[in-house]
Amino acid sequence: MPQAAKKKQEPEVDNEQPPLPPDHNGETELTEAEKKSLLVNGLAEIERHVEEKDRVVALIRTSRKRLVANGFKPKLIDYALRLRKNDEAEEIEHRRAEAEIARFLNHPIGTQPELPFTVVDRTPAVDRAFADGERVGAEGGKCESPYPDGPNQQAWIKGWGQGQTTLASAFKKLEAKAEAEAADEEEGED
Question: Based on C-alpha coordinates, what's the Rg of the chain?
Answer without folding.
Answer: 26
